[in-house]
Amino acid sequence: MVASVFLAVASPSAQDTLADLSLSKINPFTGIPANAGNAFLGSNLILQAVAVGVAPLVVQSGWDREVHNSIARHAEWAPYGLPAVGAATLLPVGVSGGLYLYGRTHDAPREVYAGCAVAQSALLAFLEQSVLKAATGRPGPKPREMTQAEVETFRFGFLRGGVFWGWPSGHMLNTTAVLTTLPALYPDNAWVRWGCWTGVATTFASVMVVNRSSMHFLSDATSGTLMGLAIGSSVGAGFARGLRLSEANRVQIEPLLGRETGALARWTF
Question: Model confidence over 229-258: pLDDT tens digits?
Fold first, then answer.
C-alpha cells in the first residue's frame, strides 16, 4: 500500500473553515458574559477591591486635598492637559474602529479581534464608571484651593451628583481599559506594550492638571486606572484565547482512506 500526502490550498472565498466562520461572526459582544465576569475574579478582583479601598485612604489622608491645591496654584499648567484629555475622549472609537476596518479590509484576523476587544472594553468601562458615579455622587473639584471638608464630600444614593464628574475617573477607566486590552493580542510587540502604558501615564497626568485640577481628584484617577486595568486584562485575555484558537483551526488535516492512504492538509490565507 502506497502512502502519499496531498496538500490543498484554498482561499476563504472558495471554502469555509471553522476559522473563517469564527472570524465572520466575531463582534464587540463576543464572549462578553465571560469577560465581564473575569474582570471581577482572581487577580482582577484584587484590582477592583484595591480600587475601591484606596479611595477613602487617599481622601481622608489629605492627599487628595494637597495634590489638588498644589496643582490649582499653578495656573500655567492648565492648558497642558487638554490635548491628552481630548484624545482620551475619542480613543475608544478611534482605536476600535481603525483596527476593525483595517482587519476587515486587509484580511487581518488579529486586527479584527483587537478592534472588537477594544470596543468591548470601552463598553464595560463605561457601564462600570456610570454605575459607580451614579451611586457615589462625588462633586468635581473646583479650580481653586479647597478645604478638606469639600474634598471629602460624597452624596451616596442615586444620581445625587450626576455621572459626568466624580469617582471614579471615567477618562482613566476608559483609557486604561482600552489600552491595556491590546498587549494580550500583541504579546511580542514591545512598541504596543510601552505605547499603551505611556498613553495611560500621559492621560493620568493630564486629568490631574487640566483646568487647574478641576476635572478629577487623585483618588478618582487612581481608582479609575485600577478598574480599567482589571477590565482591559480580562477582555484582552479572552479575545487573545479566541484568536489563538482561530489561528490553530486555519490548518486542518484530514485522513484519506481508500485506494491510497495519506492525509489531506488544508489551510487558508
Answer: 999 999 999 999 999 888 766 544 445 555
The percent of residues in the chain predicted with pLDDT above 90, rounded, is 70
Query: pTM for the complete prediction?
Result: 0.83
* 22 inside domain: no
Distance, in Å, from the CA atom of 98 to the CA atom of 104, rounded to the nearest integer, reads: 10
Instruction: State which residues form the domain around 265.
Output: 1-17+251-269
Within 8 A by CB and 6+ apart from 264, the residues are: 6, 7, 8, 253, 254, 255, 256
Dihedrals phi, psi of 265, to nearest 5 degrees? -105, 130
- For residues 200 and 50, what is the distance between their CA atoms, to the nearest angstrom? 18
d(CA 144, CA 74): 10
Q: Which helix (H) or strand (E) holds 252?
A: strand 251-256
Q: Are residues 257 and 150 in the same domain?
A: no
pLDDT, tens digit (0-9, with 9 covering 90-100), for 40-90:
999 999 999 999 999 999 999 999 999 999 999 998 888 888 888 988 889
> Cell triple for residue 14?
472558495
Helix axes 82-105 and 190-213, enclosed angle (nearest 10) = 150
The number of folded domains in the chain is 2
Q: Output phi, psi for 268, to 5 deg.
A: -115, 150
Angstrom distance (rounded) from CA 95 to CA 263? 42
The reply to whether 7 falls in a domain is: yes
